[in-house]
# Entry
Amino acid sequence: VNISAEASKSGLTPDELPAVAAAVAQLPRLRLRGLMAIPAPTADFEQQRRSFQSVRQLQQQLQQTGLQLDTLSMGMSDDLEAAIAEGATWVRIGTAIFGPRQ
# Structure
């Protein structure tokens, strides 16, 4: 989900998500497991939390329609604490492990 509306990132807008999720739910050989998002970079913890909270709320809205979404992939090395606080089940921590890209 492109939660920051950044042109440099792909993904559905939050407004597009419900219709696409409903369409995928009708396909017998596919199962939508969850949502993935990368918010705009910021060092502000509360802003990070708000971004991740919006993804969690989208997940909850879809769950209320009967979809069983068990995955929230959000958070990277610089914002993983906020992502985990908002329910991330997958985080991407490459920089914390391998260091900055060269």
